[in-house]
Specification:
By secondary structure, the chain is an all-alpha fold. It is built from eight helices and no strands. It starts with a helix and ends in a 5-residue tail after the last helix.
């Protein structure tokens, strides 16, 4: 009788330590599947606009724009750490982006593009926080953010070009 108890106790102890290998593999696959790499981001298809030389001169004193561009460069490398538990910094950057805009660039089209950047930034942050976010959803959120930044750059170029064309004498 003691032998049966000892064997059943041994059996219970040995079976408790075993973990179902399929469950362990699924958990590690989920972690891998939501990780976005630089190669995933480089595969995103969108039109990227860059600032012209004149527009660069206009945004030169705008420090918040440069901070935003720095975060864009990190995102393109697959580094999304800025969006992890960094609520105050993100909120401050986005508020100061509008507050400290150079007067020459302060107009409705630019302010609208900045609001879109703000919206897509918060959306990307929320996607990163959710544990149920899939990799395609995250890549789509990154794409929306990059498109918003690119459209802001395009609008800055258009404003500079419009101001330059206003100075051309009319016949």
């Amino acid at each position: 009788m003691k032998l049966i108890y000892a064997l059943s106790l041994l059996f219970v102890l040995l079976s408790c330590k075993k973990q179902d290998p399929s469950l362990a593999n699924t958990a590690s696959e989920d972690m891998v599947s939501t990780t976005v790499t630089e190669s995933d981001i480089s595969k995103i298809d969108y039109t990227e606009f860059v600032l012209s030389q004149e527009a660069r001169k206009m945004v030169d004193p705008w420090a918040e724009y440069h901070q935003l561009q720095e975060q864009v460069s990190y995102i393109k490398k697959g580094d999304l750490s800025y969006f992890n538990d960094n609520d105050k910094a993100i909120e401050t950057l986005l508020k100061d982006l509008i507050k400290n805009i150079p007067e020459d660039l302060k107009n409705n089209p630019i302010l609208a593009r900045i609001k879109i950047v703000e919206t897509t930034t918060y959306k990307l942050e929320s996607l990163l926080r959710l544990s149920t976010t899939t990799k395609p959803e995250l890549v789509e959120g990154i794409k929306a953010f990059l498109v918003a930044i690119s459209n802001l750059d395009l609008q800055l170029n258009k404003i500079i070009e419009l101001k330059r064309n206003e100075n051309i004498p009319k016949p």
